[in-house]
Amino acid sequence: MSSADVMIALPEIFMAVAGMALLLLGTFLTRNPTRVITWLTILVLAFVFVTVAWETPARTTAFEGMFVADQFGRFMKLLVLLGSGLALAMSTGYVEREQMSRFEFPVLILFATLGMMLMISANDLISLYLGLEMQSLALYVVAAFRRETVRSTEAGLKYFVLGALSSGMLLYGASLVYGFAGTTRFEELATVLAGDAVSAGAVIGLVFIAAGIAFKISAVPFHMWTPDVYEGAPTPVTAFFAAAPKIAAMALCARVLLGPFVGLTNEWQQILIVVSVGSMLLGAFAAINQTNIKRLMAYSSIGNVGYALVGLAAGTEQGLRGVLIYMAIYLFMTLGTFACILAMKQKGRMVEQIADLAGLSRTNPMLALALALFMFSMAGIPPLAGFFAKYFVFLAAVEAELYTLAVIGVLSSVVSAFYYWRIVRVMYFEDAVEGLDRPMEPGIAAVLAVSTAVITLFILLPGAILGGARIAAQSLFPA
Q1: I need a surface site. Which of 34, 103, 248, 272 has the fewest CB within 10 A?
Q2: Is this prediction's pTM over 0.85?
Q3: Strand intervals (E) in 336-438
Q4: With bands split at pLDDT 50, 70 and 90, how would you rate the model's confidence at 450?
Q5: How many CB atoms are closer than 10 A to CB 132?
Q6: Closest residue by Cα to residue 244 from 214, 215, 217
Q7: Cβ proximity of 408 and 280 under 8 Å
């Protein structure tokens, strides 16, 4: 390991050192360690965010080619860091109120974020697996963090068992690829698999790797854990699951398919089309009869993954750009919606039923307006940001002549608008039985304000996301 390697991976190294230091500090603090460690963790994430944003890296590798830094990784790391920091900021009041006040919680979020950043910069099947497992091990624990409740323990156990299965599938696929290609390095795999005589074993390995990644992004048919984990896990954990890990897994999917397996585009494109169609349709129809808003958001996230995969299935620079734009907008839509869910309290008790939102427009008009904007944005109603997210991925599919996929995407989006509208109808056209508590916690209010501003003002100031996505996509498609 040289000093140049350390400088390239400095943000990740700093996060690892800071995480261990915070873990030690938490054991010595005697007064309110959770709040102190939480805000110190947010400061660490903010510092790393500024460090990553300050860099303008040309493509460079470190640690003998196992770690890569480029504009694509930079863009996705910024989204992951932003999602982790905002999710942690929303959690402060909930953690103290719901007896989750243990300082290990923010440290686990920090280590999970570190694993995501390693996933995004993976340039080898081995480093890919190490980053994935570092993220997953921390997520298993936070899913079951309220170990005194049956729902949280059940969520953590389901996620652990199915996550271990998916990790085994991914590792088995990586071993098959190594056995038939003779290497685990992405650049060398791209050269070997670009030939005409690609072995069937390597293709089967690709299928297993794709299945393992599909679990991490909760895509059909590997979605079965999502509704139960989203409903059972503590709400701040659910918000975190729906944002940062999904973005990191989508970045990993794009880097793997458009890097070492770009020579097998025809093979993995068929997989993505089937997975995308299944995710969009399931997300559209399965959410219709849901009464728990967290469970509804689980099916919504499955549908959103399907829409993002439409752009990736195109296999073009335009398609990847659409995916990056979609994930950036999805981050703010999701965190804003979960900020509203975290504000759903009656007499200090969290409520999760859609019926509990009845009459919210009269008891808390600003919260109702914000939630309505997020619902309309997820439905793809212009001029909100969600419309442009879907527009770019569907446009890429049309340009790649995937007309059927684009049509199915539009139709499933129309169906999903029904259950988004149902939430708005409950808030504005039903009588309130009992209003939600006021005022809102400062962390939740801040996240809600930022997310609402991004969703509503995107049409006026789209340059940061669109320009960043264009540069990031170009780094995976060099001229």
Answers
A1: 34
A2: yes
A3: 345-346, 349-350
A4: very high
A5: 26
A6: 217
A7: yes
